[in-house]
Every structure is written in structure tokens, then in C-alpha cells.
Automatic annotation (TrEMBL):
It comes from Bombella mellum. Keywords: Membrane, Transmembrane, Transmembrane helix. This is Putative glutamine amidotransferase domain-containing protein. Pfam families: GATase1_like (PF07090). The keyword Membrane applies.
Amino acid sequence: MTGILSSIIWAPFLPLWLLAALAVISLLPGLYGTIRGGRGVAWRTGAILLGLLWLANPRLTHPHMQTQPQDALLVVDVSPSMSIGERRKLVEQARSQLLEQGRKLHGLTLHQIEVPGGGGQGTRLFEAIDHAALSLNSPAGIFLLTDGMDHDIPDQLPPSLKDATGRIIPLHLLLSARGEETDRRLRVLSAPPYVIIGQTAHIRVQVDDLGTPDGQPVDILEHRPDGQTDVLAHTKSGQPVELDVPVTHAGITLKELTASPLKGEASLRNNSTIIRLQGVRDRLRVLLVSGVPNQGARVWRTLLKADPSVDLVHFTILRSPDTEDDTPLSDLALIPFPTHELFAQKINSFDLIILDGFRNQNILPESYLENIAHYVRKGGGLLVVGGPEMTQPGTLQDTPVGSILPAHIPADDAIITQPFSPRRTALGLSHPVTQALPENGPWGREWGPWYRALRTDQTQGRTLLSTPSGSPLLILDQRGQGRVAMLLSDQIWLWSRGEKGGGPQAELLRRLSHWLMKEPELEEDQLDAHIEQGRLSVTRTSLTPLHDVQADIIGPDGHHSSLTLSPEPDHQGLWSGSMSLPVLSDQTGQIWTIQQGGLNTTVALPDANPLEDQDLRSTATKLSSLTGRSGGGVFWLGAGGTPAIRQVVEGHALHGSDWAGLPLHQAPLSTGSTSTAFLPGWLALVLILALMALGWWREGR
């Protein structure tokens, strides 16, 4: 009503003051007559006032209106899930047909964007729509070409579905299928991150049927490297299943589990899952025996006690067993050193023995030292950290332990007492213990200096660190089934104190101790592989020269192929090669097996789109609510084809069974307007005569 009144203008035939005076003159007698009970007076007065209103000539103004141009957004989902079946083909056909229709409609401009999705973030259509809608001048609607799987659907209508005046614009959903689809997926509910070698991992999995009721029979299978499968369990969808997986070796164990297909499901891509189990040894036991108390002992204690998987036994020997001491036993602060228990009864229970600054001086009987050498030959690990005590009487190299040491220290002129920065040898650049040591850090271009080292006159094994002059600092060797290492300086603790920037002390000692305890990732002879961007890269590490290195690649389907590995020019002992992987069907599997020189390893295709692969259906269930609230329609491209675009008058329905509408909005022009009489003359005459007749009839009764 307010809008109508605001559009009325006055064009009186007589001056308004005259019309107002006549109205008052006619109104007063009318009121008096009505009060006195005169019949028909009110009707005659109304006829006079109606005539005066006609003389005032009220008119309705009508501004000149113009239809606004239309901007519509064409959003095309090109996420990885759109590669399933004929989805991409259906969407491309619909895109070209919509663009062709848009070119034929007057005033309509179609703006198209593509939403890639994937990358671990899923499909984020509305994030792209919100950004693109900012550039639309007159938004009239959005066409969304997708499989219906979006991962940023808002709870309320977003600002991108409204124009500048707050009017809601339609969101039309064009789905790349014939109708609602079904999908089956296999989920891992729980799996241990670490499993002790020799024990069994308890895995809990569940098969879900999406788009159809659960409870259907399903088999859980395991893919073998030869391409065959084993049935692990018979179950029903929607029910958790417990599986036992034995872990027989250290490092990563890969298991591929697959759920049997659901009839008519959209894709088999998420019917399989890869389980990665990290095999670890039970708690590692380390025996640390220090000679005279020194700064290095604290470094070792800090490093080993910080590792929750290590049980550390640490003793510092301050006196020999035969030292006479008249102090009463009740006043002694130190317990007797349990030499027999440690070096005879329980020596084989340790994974590593560290002798730091240890000088024998008849502290340990010859038989115990022989036990240490026997322990190493039978598979144990020994680390000797040498200092000046290695040049004094009673040195370890003059005991049975000397037979397993990889270096010999001369009695004279054996101590280097000048500053030097440790360096990696050519072999150290390739050896797993020192290869990955960081070169950059607070120390600048070189690691911080040490100020004392031992000179050798005989070495064997592999030298990984040396002084700038070439004198060995870190030597590794294998004795029998065990391993031994010698660090020919007792000043690595300077790195932990940050001497001139320090160095990678913690990482070096950690990798060195784990190599001695035979951790798989630090093996000198190993085979590694990884898959990235569709290429398989294989690296072979061997400190023994190899010739004509060929790797046997076994695909998930059991097919064999050969890959030539070439030596790395800058890294001694490394051979590498890569190849493009063929595209396999979803039913084939995901684990590749690589064999070379008696070694083998497995690698799985990376799960590039975990969020995208959770549900691979084409469905309207996720977006239909938002589409309905916007006034848009849902269309299945595989069943009804591409809908026709219609320009619809505002206020009418915006979609039908085979068409999608875009509302036409009109805006007034500022150039002029037209007007029409609010009270036409013929209507005024009829109403006046009618009122006069009513007054005459009323007066006559």
C-alpha cells in the first residue's frame, strides 16, 4: 500500500485550495444533516466528495523498466572421482550444450570455472563458487556439474547464492550418472603403529555399503605378490572384523586387504586398503661401561635415556676388584661392580655394549674380555670410544677384545692435539650411518672442532669420518655375525655443548648405535623403493662393487619387468633407477615387489586422495537440500540429458523436468515514466450517480 501511495501524483483541474474549500463547505452540512437524522444526506455528501476527488485528478506513475542482463556461473567438477565410468564424458557433453544455449539467449553470459579437488583436501566446490561469484555483476543462477560429492557443503545458504539485493538465486544440480549409485568401501578401524617382531598384530576392519542397506555377505581378501588372493574372513557389511597379521621382520610390513565387490557399485577403488605395520624389536638393552668419569658419559646417558625403547645399564668403574680398601663395608657409597653377572651370566641379553674411555688395568679378568669378543662374533654390537687411555698400559687392544677391534693405536706419538673439524670420507657420503647427517646448522659450513684424536698405524673395516689430514675418526667393521665400531676421539661431547656451532652429535650417535643393533634402515646392503607421481624409483646400496645391476619389478598383477640401476656418480656405493608405472585396473592391487641381489622390498601406491575415496558414489543426497532451498532443480545427465535453459519471469517456478530457469529481474530507468488516472472519469461518473441514487432511495423510505 505504501508503494502505491508513493507512486501517486496530483494534476488538479482546479486549484487545490479551491477544491479543499469546496470539500469543507460540502462536508459541514453533510455532518449536520447526518447528526439531525436526515436520510440520504451522507450518500449525497459522499457523491460530492467523490466528484471533488476526481477534479483533483490523482494519477499513478509507471517508471520505464528494463530487463537486467544475466550472469550465470557454470561450475565443472574435475576432481579425481570424476574419472570413474562415464562421468567426465557426461559432464563435458553437458558443458558444451549449456554454453551453446547460453550464447543464443539474449542478455545471458555464462562464466565457467573448473574445480580440480584432490590433493588430500577433497572436493571444495563452494569455496571456488564463493570466490568466482565476487566477479558477477548480475548473478542469476549457478549450474553445478558434479558427481554430488563435495566436502565443503555449508549448513545455510551461502552469500554466493544471493544477489546484491538479497534475492536468492537458483542452484541447479547436474549429476554425472543415471541415478543414485551404490559403493562399497573397506575401512581400518584400528591398527597398532608398532608391533614387536615375532608377535601378531590385531587389526580391526569394517566393510560399509553406501547407498544400500548393510548386512550383505562380503569376503575380505589379501593380495599376494604373485597376483593371487587369499580369503581372510567371511563377514557381512556393517560388521567389524578382527584380523591377525604376523610380523616377522623389522621395518615396514605391507598388507593389502580387499573387500569382494558389491554388485553394481560405482567403483572398486576404495574396496582395498593398505595396512602398514612397523616391526620393532622388544626393548633394546644397552650396557654402557665408563672408565674414568668424563663429559662423554653424560652425552651417552642423555641420548640413550631419552629413547623410550632402550633399557640402559650404566656403570662407571673407579677401582679394580683387587684394590685394597680399609673402609668399613657399611661406610662404602658404591656397590661392588657386578662383573660376573654382566660379563658372564647376562652378556648375551644385551643388544649393545659401549666401552667409553675404558682402561682395563686388570679390572676385568681375561675370561670376561674373551666373553665380550665371543659376544660380538655371535651377533652382538660393540662400540669403543677411545681417548688417551688407549695409549697407556692396560689398553683394550692388548686384551682378547683387541682381536675384534678395527684399528690399532701405536704406543708412541698416537695423540693428535690440534683443532680439527671431522669430515665424512667418500664412503661416509654413501654409508647409511653418516649419509643423512645434516651439513647445515649453527656450525656454518663445517662442523664444530674437536681438539684431540688418536692416530692409528693399522686399520681395517670402513672409515666413515676422518680428520682433514685423513686420519681415521670413525671406523665400522663386522666380526663374525656381530658388529664393532671405534670412535677415535673422546671429544664428541663438544658438539653437544655447541662448541663453535657444534655438530650433529645426537643424530650421529643415534644412527651409530642403531647400526650396531642392526636396524634395517641403516643396513649397508639394502634395497629401497618409493612411488611418486606415477614413477617407481629404486635405490640399491652396496659397499661391495656391483656390475650390471638389474632389479626385478613384480607388479600387483604378478607381471615381471626389469629395471636397470646405474651407479650414482657423486655417491659411492649407490645405484638407482626409475620407471613409469602402467595404469592398472582397480581390481589388480596396489603393492609392487622389487627384488635384486637376494634382497627384496615392497612399496605401495600412495593414497593421494583419502578424503575423496571415502565415498565414490554419484548422489544427490548431499546437495539436494541446498538445491531445493535455492529454488533450483536436480537433473541426472545420464538419464534425462542436459536440461534446457529458460529465462523465467521473476516469481515463477525456476525448474521443470527438463529445463532449468534463470529469473529475469527488471530495474527502473532514470530517463522517464508514464502515468494513468487513478480514478478514470467514467468510473467517477458511475460511482457519483450510484451514490446519488442511494441517497434518493434512502430519503424516500
